[in-house]
Amino acid sequence: MERPERPRANGCGGAHGALRNGFVRGPPGTQINHIVHNGGLYKRPFNEAFEETPMLVAVLTYVGYGVLTLFGYLRDFMRQWKIEKCQNATEREEQKDFVPLYQDFENFYNRNLYMRIRDSWNRPICSVPGAKVDMMERVSHDYNWTFTYTGRVIKDIINMGSYNYLGFAQKAGACQEAAAEVLSQYGAGVCSTRQEMGNLDKHEELEKLVARFLGVESAMAYGMGFATNSMNIPALVGKGCLILSDELNHASLVLGARLSGATIRIFKHNNMQSLEKLLKDAIVHGQPRTRRPWKKILILVEGIYSMEGSIVRLPEVIALKKKYKSYLYLDEAHSIGALGPSGRGVVEYFGLSPEDVDVMMGTFTKSFGAAGGYIGGKKELIDYLRTYSHSAAYATSMSPPVVEQIITSVKCIMGEDGTTIGRARVQQLAENTRYFRRRLKEMGFIIYGNEDSPVVPLMLYMPAKIGAFGREMLKRNIGVVVVGFPATPIIESRARFCLSAAHTKEMLDTALKEINEVGDLLQLKYSRRRLVPLLDRPFDETTYEETED
């Protein structure tokens, strides 16, 4: 007698080649997409691709780093014996018996690996970081230890690296005119904190506007996006609290968690089985030694992860948060403005309620073309942060022209400027994202992340190809960001493209043409159309129950 198939919690049956992890297998040679409809939590398909690193490429990458390390030790030996000139920072001779100020091993990577490709970073831009930029040319005559400017400016480089998602980084238009007018009225600086003489009417206007935009009771703005995380998390949790943090969270979240004094536990990236196990253990076992219940359990996640291009599985995170009575801190630095039909971020993207997120954080540095960050939530939360947040008590208030830039861009996105320009930009970004990702996959590159994420990582793997890709693209007037170890795992070096609504189809086609040529030149088309499942668990092992407070 044939055994009946067990029903699955994610709504995906076992027919037509469905796999246990929510992957759907197509004909041989086709790509496997991560498609999730978990228990009706998702109102739209959720497609993410993380293709397996080819074994030969992984081995050659390790060999490449091994060769570089061996030559690094050889060059250090030559420097020690004055055979090669030593240009790195060292202790003075009279301090040789002191505790080392410069740890030799810590600087080994910078001296011998990073220095070889240092010209790929910190390139000086001398224009607005829009769809195209101007760059100051520089050369090095000592293998990237120092640079000399030639006086030449490289014009009209297609900018594929800035976080200018909605194209508001511009030197003309409504935002620029409004910021210039406020500059003439208020000046550039405030010279005080919000709690003293630095609370302007513009700050109040901005916070009310952001609260309406997010759909929350209240909001507070800060002058620095990094400090919004690092200085506010310690105000929310402390000793006796537990933080559950995604392993790929941004450094600002990591620093804030460490400064808080709370216990920190890490769950696998976007892995709900790993998160639920930590939640269960936290509730069952309580605090170490005393076994007392945790005062608070705070889950830290991001909307879009800026190195992976992945989107948080927010419906499942919220379901777990409700089930286990914990709190949720959502960092929407890259997702606000870039996701959702009207640019309201990952909450709108999934069709969820802002009330389900306890702390909504985001920055103005990306989609809004400005600077600073915000936190939104219930009025009680914001009133508490106004008093106890270090950023509110000790940091200088936001510059008035920057505030006006944000106000004007947010009103444009919301349509309160009387135009549909903002909505059109959000739609254009979504179209550019899907087009660019599809074309790169068709060319045979390994591309990470969600199909709707404007952050597009193209895998390079080998260390020599990091610098080569950046240089070859710059020769072709394309500006790109390349990333390697330790910012990524050692075998997962990549180029990271950031799409913008300001990119025209002609610009994208030009960039794609050059990327295709460089990909052939450097042999970067590794794709075999085999993807690694992001989750280790079968979806039918866990169901989520909505519980009333």
From TrEMBL:
One of its GO terms (cellular component) is endoplasmic reticulum membrane. Pathway: Lipid metabolism; sphingolipid metabolism; Sphingolipid metabolism. Its EC number is 2.3.1.50. This is serine C-palmitoyltransferase. It is a single-pass membrane protein. Belongs to the class-II pyridoxal-phosphate-dependent aminotransferase family. PROSITE patterns: AA_TRANSFER_CLASS_2 (PS00599). One of its GO terms (biological process) is ceramide biosynthetic process. It comes from Corvus moneduloides (New Caledonian crow). Its cofactor is pyridoxal 5'-phosphate. Residues 155-515 form the Aminotransferase class I/classII large domain. GO terms for molecular function: pyridoxal phosphate binding; serine C-palmitoyltransferase activity.
